[in-house]
Design brief:
Length: 62
Amino acid sequence: MEHKKELDELHKKSLDKIDEYLKTKKNLSEEHHEKLNEAKNKWQASWLELKQFLMYLETLEI
């Protein structure tokens, strides 16, 4: 259970750093901004899939 908390904290810190970085890049074109948001959304979707997989493994008690 502790490892899930550590992964959640790492994920949150990473997203915070991405948001901070995006705030500093105000002169990005609309296309670049959309690509960065798309990548962030893909990251979050992948994160949710990883968490679901970890919960599945936990139910199998591996």
